Amino acid sequence: MKVSELARRAGIAPSAVRFYEETGVLPPAARRDNGYREYADEALARLRLVVALRRLGLAPVEAGRFAALCIDRGEVDIDLEPLIAGQRAAIERQRADLDRLGSELTDLELTIQAAGRARRYQEAPTMPSAPIRALFVCTGNSARSQMAEALLSDFGGADFEVFSAGTEPKGVNPYTVRVLGEIGIDWSGAHSKSVTEFIDQPFDYVITVCDRARQTCPVFPGEHNSLHWGLDDPAEVDGTDQQKLEAFRRTRTEVATRLRPFVELARRARVSKPKAAAAALN
């Protein structure tokens, strides 16, 4: 086959084929009578293996050496095993990151839809409105919902009135207090609350942050937006103190990632008092 076909089938540019030849990674091709290079199927197999090894992070010469061992001697160098294992682990991490990003995008889409509904409920804003009331619900009200309450209170300031509760409250996790303290939020005085304490109160947003709470959360009266943010429970992570602390830090970051766009969208869509109320004050 010609160099153009070889490059196409290997997924690289013809100039890359010449580079691998010049560095000795790919043996020189035979020449036809007309002077054109002719590549055999073995060259394609070797080149594909080299390209795959390069993706594992090997330098060209290293990739050529391993490819030669595999093709010329039919052996797989033992040094390849940790490289392949490492690449598989990296792929799994990327897959988990993509899944997490997909969840965050879904949550953002739902938040935008909720903000749109809130905007349709309101009349044109003519005066400052009351704070936006938000309630975060999880099972124990010990970690995720507590972080959400603390962070939204911090991010949103006076524009928000924030609460959190649990369907089965069990006390604030000490790691929750620690990771919030790391970013300057003193949460040492917080305590877990039951969702039943808030059942008769009006809210603009009721946000569940775990699947179990979503299934058991009571129905709140009045017109409000219900959102669900599926967050892993950091309290379920076993390990050393440092590993547990890292889990709570990850949850803190995930909550903050969801809250920042929520704050801006909710502010824009806040339910304002009608024009008639403003006129009555004039």
Task: Give an account of the 3D structure.
The chain is of the alpha/beta class. The protein has two domains: 3-77, Multidrug-efflux Transporter Regulator, Chain: A, Domain 2; 99-272, Rossmann fold (3-Layer(aba) Sandwich). The chain is 53% helix and 9% strand. It contains ten helices and six strands. The protein has a four-stranded parallel β-sheet. Strands 1-2 form a two-stranded antiparallel ribbon. Residues 121-127 and 271-282 have low confidence and may be disordered.
Name the beta content range. Answer: 5-15%
Q: Going across the major beta sheet, what is the strand order?
A: 4-3-5-6
Spatial extent as radius of gyration: 29 Å
Q: Care to count the β-strands?
A: 6
Secondary-structure element order, N to C: HHEEHHHEHEHEHEHH
Low-pLDDT stretches: 121-127, 271-282
CATH topology of the largest domain: Rossmann fold
CATH class of the largest domain: Alpha Beta
Task: Tell me the number of structural domains.
Answer: 2
Name of the CATH superfamily of the largest domain: Response regulator
Tally of helical runs: 10
> What characterizes the major β-sheet?
4 strands, parallel
Q: Determine the fraction of residues in helical runs and give it as a percent range.
A: 40-55%
List the helices and strands and how they pair.
Layout: H1 3-10, H2 14-22, E1 30-31, E2 37-38, H3 41-55, H4 60-72, H5 80-121, E3 132-138, H6 144-156, E4 160-166, H7 174-182, E5 205-208, H8 211-216, E6 225-228, H9 241-268, H10 275-281
Parallel strand pairs: 3-4, 3-5, 5-6
Antiparallel strand pairs: 1-2
